[in-house]
Amino acid sequence: MKKGKKLYEGKAKIIFASAEKNLVIQHFKDDATAFNNQKKANIEGKGILNNRISEHILSALKDVGIENHLIKRLNMREQLIDLAEIIPIEFIVRNIVTGSLTKRLGIEEGTILNKPLIEFCYKNDQLGDPLVSREHIDVFGWATLSELNLITDQCLRINDFLQGMFRGINIKLIDFKLEFGKRKSDGKIILADEISPDTCRLWDADTDKKLDKDRFRKDLGDVVEAYQEVARRLGILHEQVSNVRPIKFPKPTAVKIKKK
Ligand code: 5GP
């Protein structure tokens, strides 16, 4: 598919026009940013991995009836997607307490929530993506209350599906961020953006080793190796990306069963 002009450049992705009116090309960069753009790096291979992982997850969600912007992956770094007007809200879904929730409310890191928590943050870098309420979203016209109900319902369904998918590959889904938009062709609200280790917290279920962007945020090293491990466990990447070493995990200790 021929790439048209650049329409938008974000921190980790670029959107280009395509030959089709209501479709655009989403390009995954290797750039990583954190803490409101204060920390920046180029992590070789990250864009390729996020493209593959997000394609895998969004296709699986489509198969279970959760509509989203993915049409198809075009190449190593690009996807053809529906053009959508993004709602300026980050929908955060949490299963286990960590990150900004610990800082904001002082709740102990690692606390397992008795049900998923959905938070809304206004997408605005200058303001540091502040937490907002349903009422802010309604009053400022970012989405209607009925659109919000539909989106929160989808957030919970996506969480259920992803938790199961990751549990199957021995990964705990701690929390994640979703974005939704209004599809240009028919005005329908659909899941957009990406779902990848850039937007989720993923911990190895045996060791709690972080397999996500926190490795970059917290200077833990082995960022691409961790993303590659997620891709490997999902069964979507058999070849190595660049020259990264496979990540080493301790062998699970055998459980001894006492003979009676
Ligand atoms: P927290 O609010 O604890 O910093 O983040 C909660 C979850 O949402 C984490 O999985 C984090 O990766 C994701 N998240 C929140 N804001 C952003 C953002 O601006 N960009 C990305 N890539 N992920 C975010």
Query: Any guess at the CATH architecture of the largest domain?
Result: 2-Layer Sandwich
Q: Tell me, what is the CATH class of the largest domain?
A: Alpha Beta
> What order do the helices and strands follow?
EEEEEHEEEEHEEHHEEEHH
Shape: globular
Task: Describe the secondary structure blueprint for this structure.
Elements: E1 6-9, E2 13-17, E3 23-28, E4 31-34, E5 39-42, H1 46-63, E6 70-73, E7 78-82, E8 84-86, E9 89-96, H2 99-105, E10 112-122, E11 131-132, H3 134-139, H4 145-167, E12 171-183, E13 189-192, E14 200-204, H5 214-217, H6 223-234
Antiparallel strand pairs: 1-2, 2-3, 3-7, 4-5, 6-7, 8-12, 9-10, 9-12, 10-11, 12-13, 12-14
Helix pairs in contact: 1-6
Bound molecules: guanosine-5'-monophosphate (5GP).
Task: Provide a brief overview of the structure.
This protein is an alpha+beta fold and 260 residues long. It has six helices and 14 strands.
